[in-house]
Each structure stands twice: as C-alpha cells, then as structure tokens.
Design a protein that fits this description.
2 copies of one chain form a homodimer.
Chain A (H helix, E strand, L loop, with lengths): L2 H28 L2 H6 L5 H7 L3 H24 L5 H18 L1 H4 L11 H27 L8 H13 L1 H4 L8 H16 L1
The first copy, chain A, binds a DNA duplex (30 and 30 nucleotides) through helix 1 and helix 3.
Chain lengths: ~190, ~190
DNA sequence: TTAAAATTTGAACCTTGTTTAAAAAGTGAT
DNA sequence: ATCACTTTTTAAACAAGGTTCAAATTTTAA
C-alpha cells in the first residue's frame, strides 16, 4: 500500500471518529457535515473527497463500531466456562456497548428508504455476523442441555431487541447504574433461553 | 363548540391521518410537508395554519396512535382470565399494533435533540400510561403468584423493547407471519416474568 | 524546479421546512 | 344581495443543510 493511500485511510478514520463523536452528542440529523468537518479544521466540501455522501459516511461509522463490537464479543465465545456464563457475559458486553455508543451502534437502518442497497449489504452482513455470535452460544448451550429453545432466531431477536431498547430510556443519572442493569437484564434474559 | 372549531378539528385529523399514512410508507424524513399536503389537495403552507411545524404534526400523529393503542390494551386488562393469559393477549395486541403502525407507533423520540419539552411531555405521559398497563398485569399476576419478578420496570422494558424491535427486522413476506410471531414471542416473554 | 496528481476551497445549487403578505373563501348582519 | 369582517389558502421568498464542481492550493516524485 502506498503512503498516499495510507494517509487517505487515516483521514477517513479521523472523519469517521469526528462523525461518531458528534452524532453521539447530537444524533443523526443534528450532526451536520459542516460541524463534522469543522472538528477537523476542514470545510464540508472536502468530506466529499473521502465519502460519497452523508449516508456513506454514517454507514462507515456504523461499520467501524460494529467491527469493534464483534471483536469484543468474540472473546466471550471461547471462554472456558458454562454456556450460561458465556451468554451472560455477552449480554453484559452488549449492554455496555449499546449504552456507550448510543447513536452509532444502534443506528436505525431502513433498507427501503434512505439507503442504497449497495451501502446496506455490508452492514447487514456485519450485523448478521454480530447476531450470529449469539446464535452460536445459544446453539452450543442447547447441545449441552443448558438451554431449551426451538425458535433460535426469535429468541436472539428478543435478547438483542430488549437490550437495544435500553437506549430509548437509559439516563446515566437514573435509578440504575450500568452494572445493575447488566445483571438484571442477564438474569431475566437467561430465563428466555433456559 | 362552534362549527368552525369542529371543522378545524376535522381538518387537523385529516392532516394527521395523511401524515401517518405517508410516514408509515416513507419514514419520518421521507414524509415531506409537501406530500402530506398534496394528499389532501392542499399546499404545504396551509399546514402551518393547523400545526406549528412538522415536529408538532408528527407529535400529534404519535399521540393519536398511542391513544388508540391504549384503548385497545385496556380491554385485555379486564378480561376474566388468568393473568398469564391477559399478559399473553396484551403481548399479541402490542405486536400487531407495532407492526401495523411501524413508523408512527414507535417513532424514536429524543428529548435532548429535536423536540421541545413542551411537545414531549404529553407524549411521555401517554407512553407511561401505555407502559403502566403492562405494569398493572404483571403486578396483579405477582399477587396471584402467577409471576415472580423483582424488578418490575426492567421486566416491562424487556417486554416492550423486544417487541418494538420487531419493526427493525420484520418483513411481511418473511419466514414468520404475524400470528406465529405473536405466539412465539408470547411464549418466550412469559418466561421472563414467570 | 516543475509537471502531474491529490486535496481543499468557496461558491452555487437543490431540497425541504418555515414565514408572510396578499388573495380567496366563507360568514353574518343588515 | 351586499358589505364588513374573519377564516383559510396560496404563492413567493427565505433558511439550513446536503451536494456538486471548477478553480485554487498543496503535495509528490522525478
């Protein structure tokens, strides 16, 4: 890889990080191309040298965050503990991540509307990859007779959906701190698969 | 109430219904004031005679849908069946509603960002009212020893969150039809509170 | 040093929400 | 039916923010 390509990649990443930062603060619509650029002392026009458009930029934010999340989950998949404990740890990790990366992690993607299928496909794949890790533990846990579930996909959707929803109501200064949330959610969600 | 006031109310409702219709098809950003107006053979400017701005209109869509949903739920609260069955029916109703009213029912409200707290308060109250109905069955079911839950709020959040998430992935032509979805979700979610 | 390539700029454009003055339509009293 | 008054609608203009593009600037490599 040439030096120039490396520089482009680095710049892209800076822009993505800037976008993530601002989006987590102001949401998708609140984060203007101008502000994202200003953060890096650029003008908004320059962003279009690196990204096709705002959608593209946001997608790549999504992808970066998802990629990191997948890596974080991976670890738990191979821990030498019961499947119940593995799933519990994955639940905790997911909750921590969903709260930390409020906007980006859980951005709402609507295939039909805003986004082109070109942009969408890799993201959906990454999402599947992420979700698949949950499927894996659940399946293995079933083989080991720790879990009993007939509709794997729905069970997983219930787990992820309920956790993602936390963003809708969680306030850092509310009744529960993150740790309590993680534990109670893990307790209750494990009841679903057991 | 004067005739003119009645006419205004009727027109407001027409606009709200038009907005709901278009939003459910194209999402929040996809529904332009122009298209909402065109549906009723008006120009977008006229909408501002009835609503302060787009936010206001959307909020009122939200409120209408929520009000109807609350009424539909209410019925199940008083059915002369076990609490488990009541909750099961409420779950089914919620899922049907969440799918039918995709965009509107579950519109994401972000207090800090786009919306003024004036507009937000009544919606949050309505939401609480809706959620409270779930709390009620769960509490009553606990008194009757049908359910065992210590963190009521979190249990309810898990129920509603997992159901609302269905919108993120549900396709009318997918593997599951609505009825199957309702039954499997009910089965699994009841495990949470039991 | 210089020509080509890469990057950035700033201005212009487009779409969409919002405002507003004026036009049109409706209403009620005479 | 007419006139004054109110309600409703329009069309045009504006503002904000995403997007494009030709030109200017900067970087790169020989």
């Amino acid at each position: 890889m040439k030096l120039s390509e490396k520089r482009v990649l680095k710049k892209k990443e800076q822009i993505i990080l800037s976008a993530i930062k601002i989006m987590n603060r102001k949401g998708y619509n609140g984060a203007t191309m101008e502000e994202i650029a200003a953060e890096l002392l650029m003008t908004k026009g320059a962003l279009y040298y690196y990204f096709k458009n705002k959608e593209d930029l946001i997608f790549q934010c999504h992808e970066l965050v998802l990629t990191n999340a997948i890596e974080e989950l991976q670890v738990h998949l191979e821990e030498p503990v019961s499947y119940e404990t593995r799933l519990r740890n994955m639940i905790k990790t997911h909750i921590a991540y969903a709260i930390k990366e409020k906007e980006t992690f859980n951005m709402i993607l609507k295939p039909d509307e805003t986004f082109s299928s070109e942009q969408l496909k890799p993201i959906l794949l990454k999402r599947q990859e992420y979700a698949h890790q949950f499927d894996t533990v659940i399946k293995e846990g079933m083989k080991a007779n720790e879990f009993t579930i007939t509709e794997l996909k729905i069970a997983r959707m219930i787990l992820l959906g309920s956790m993602n929803w936390i963003q809708q109501w969680y306030q850092p200064d509310g009744k529960f701190n993150v740790e309590e949330l993680q534990n109670v959610y893990a307790d209750y969600l494990l009841k679903v698969v057991k």
